[in-house]
Amino acid sequence: MLFVLNNSNTIGNQFLAELRDANIQQDRLRFRNNQERLGEILAYEISKKLKYVTTEVQTPLGIATINMPETQPVLGTILRAGLPFHQGFMNYFTQSPSAFITAYRKVKKNGTFIINIDHIATPDLEGKILILCDTMLATGQSIVQVCKELIATYNIKELHIAAIIASTEGIAHVKANLPKAHLWLGAIDEEMTSKAFIVPGLGDAGDLAFGEKMS
Question: Can you give the pTM of this predicted structure?
Answer without folding.
Answer: 0.92
